## 1
Amino acid sequence: MSWQPNPLEEQRLDKLARLREIGIDPYPLRVERTHTTHEAIAAFEATTEGEPVKVIVCGRLLSVRDMGKTIFAHIGDESGRLQLFLRRDDIGDESHTTFKKLIDLGDFIQAGGEMFRTKLGEVSLHVREWRLLSKAISPLPVAKEQEVDGKIVRYSAFTDVEERYRQRYADLAANPEVRDIFRKRAHLVSALRRFMDDHDFLEVETPILQPLYGGAAAKPFTTYHNQLKQELFLRISFELYLKRLLVGGYERVYEIGRDFRNEGVSFKHNPEFTQLEFYAAYWDFHDVMDFTERMVAYAAEAVLGTTDVVFNGKMLQLGQPWLRITMRDAIKHFAEIDYMDYPDQASLAAAVRKIGGEAPPGAPWGKLIDGLLGDFVEPHLIQPTIIMNYPRDISPLAKAVPGDPLHVERFEFFIGGMEMGNAFTELNDPIDQRERFESLQEMFGKDDEERNPIDEDYLRAMRYGMPPNGGFGMGIDRLAMLLTDSRTLREVLLFPHLREREE
RNA sequence: GGCCCUGUAGCUCAACGGCAGAGCAGUUGACUCUUAAUCAAUUGGUUAGAGGUUCGAAUCCUCUCAGGGUCACCA
C-alpha cells in the first residue's frame, strides 16, 4: 500500500507548504559548510579565549529547548553534536518565528556564527544566521538523554528490534552506537585487507554466479540467465576458483566477498554472509594456523586498540597463543568418548546415542564426529581454540594426515563458542581428488542438495599441476560480532533479510 | 518446520473480562544561558488482521500475518 500520512506527518506537510509560501525552499541545492561539529569545537578550544572563531556547521536537529526569545538546540552530524544558541535579537523576528513554528526535530539545518562557551560551560555556536537544508516529514524516534554518573541514560530510545532492522536508516539516525557498530565493521574489513596485502596476497574477484557450486557442503540458491538459457548457482564458497589461480601461477590470493547458502537462519547464520578466503602456495595448515592467530590479533588491535575483547560478558584473549588440540582429544575431553574405539558408522552412531548426542540415520562416520564436536565441545570453546585433524570422509578437499587414513590436515577455529573459520592443507592430487568427489557422490543421496556436482574443470586445472598450498576461510560477520559484542549476526548486518510484510 | 513468548498513540510502555491510559514527541500559550529545560493547557487509538465465546473482549478461544527465543537444520 502506498504511503498514507499519519497526523504528525500531515502537520509537517502543512509546515512544508507554509515554508514554500514564505519563499523558503525546504530542499535547497547548495550548502555552505566550513566545519564539522567536531572541528568547530576543536577550533574553538585551540584558540585563546576572546578570539572569534567563525564557523558554518550543518546537521540534523536533535533537540530544541525553547526559552522564549532564546532557543537552545543541538544538531548532530557524523562527527558528533553541537549546541546552537539562537536569540531573536541576533537572527531577527522573522527568522526566529520561522524556526519556532516551522522547524522540527529531524530537519537538517545549516547554522553560522561564532563559537563561544555558555555559562554552564558547553562549547556552543552563537548563531547569526541559519537555513533549512532538508525538511523531515516523518518524525524520527527521538530519544532523550541524561548523563548520570558519567553514563548516558536514554529515554524512549528506538529499540523495537523488528522496526530497527526494517528501517535501518531510522535506527542509524536515532542510535549513535549502531552507527559505531558499522564503523567498526568497516575498520575490520579494511584491517583484514591491509593485513593480507602486507603479506603479499593478491586480492581477486571470482564469479558469484556459477554454473556449478562447490567448496562447501551447503544448499545453493539457483537463478537463471535468460540469454544463455542456463541455470546458474550463487556461490557457496570461493574455494575452487581461488585454487585454480594457484595453478595459473599466483602464489598468494585472497577474496573478501559474499557467500550464499540456502539454509536456516539463526543468530549465527544468515543466507548471505561475508567471507574471507585465502590460499598460499607452499604453506601447510600449520603455517595457516600461525597466520590466523596473527591476523585475528591484528584485526582486533586495529579495530579496538586491544586484543583483549569483551564478548557476552567474557574477556577473550585474542592476542595469546591459541590452544591447539586435535579433534579426537577435544571430544575425549568434553564428551568423554574416544571415537577411534568405534571405527564404523553403526557402532559410533550407537555410542553417540548412548551419551545423548544426535545421530541422524545415515549420517556418515565423520559427520557423527562433527556432531559430537558441535554438541559437546563447541559451546566450551570461549577462548580462541584451534581444533585440528578432521575426519577424512567429510573433508574432500584436504590432504590426509601422514600415516592416518581416517584424518586430514584440517582445522577449524572457535572463539566465543562459535566456529569462526575453517582451513586445511589443500589436496592437490587430481587423482585422489576425483576419488574423493566420487565417494561424496555416494555418501550424499542423489536428491540431497548438499551433494556437490563434480567440477570437471577444477580437476582439469589440477591436472596441470597445483602447488602444495594452505587454504583458509573465515566468517567476517561473526568476527564483527565478537569485536562489537553483538549477540546476533543481524546486529552486524546493515540490512538483514526479513520476511516481506504487507504494508 | 516443532515448541514457547511478543505485537496497544510517532517512540517507550501501562491497563489483563467492566469508561484504552502515562511519559516523551506533537499542538497552543509563558519564559533572553537551557541541556531529560521548566510551567500551564491540549490533540492523538481499526489495541497487528480475521473470526468466535460473552450482557460486555486489548484481555479468553481459533486461525492468519510479522518478530523474538529455543530446538531441528547448518563441514
## 2
Amino acid sequence: MKEKELRRSLAVLPIGTVMKLTDLTARQIRYYEEQELVIPARNEGNRRMYSLNDIDKLLEVKDYLAEGLNMAGIKRIYAKKLAEKQAKQGKSLTDADVRKILHDEFIAVSGLSKQSQFSFRNNGL
DNA sequence: CTTCTGACA
DNA sequence: TGTCAGGA
C-alpha cells in the first residue's frame, strides 16, 4: 500500500506536460511555486519536474481559485490544514472535527476574498 | 525545440 | 497574468 504513494511522488513530468494536464499557463505554475503552494523537484538542468501528487495539488489550487479564493486565502487553507494535521498527532481530533474546522475556515476566507474582489470591480479596477 | 529567470510599453 | 529578452 506504499508502492503507489511512492510512484505518485516521483517527479517525472516537465512543465509542458503539467500545462496540458492542468490547463494552467507556465506563468501561473511558476507563480504558485513562488507562493510556496507547489514546489517541484529540479532535474540536472534546473528544469522543474512534477509528480502526480503535484498535479493533484495544482488542480486543487486551480479549483480554489475558480471558487473565488486568492493566494492569501489558499495559503490560509493549507496553513490551517497543516496545523490540524500536526495537532491531530499530539492530541486526537476526529476526522469530522477536522473537516468542520476546515469548512468553517473555507467559508470565512471565501467570503472575504469574494467581497474584496467585488469591491475592486465596483470601483472600476 | 523547451524551459529558466527577471522585468515591465 | 501576459509577454519579451537572453541564455542554457
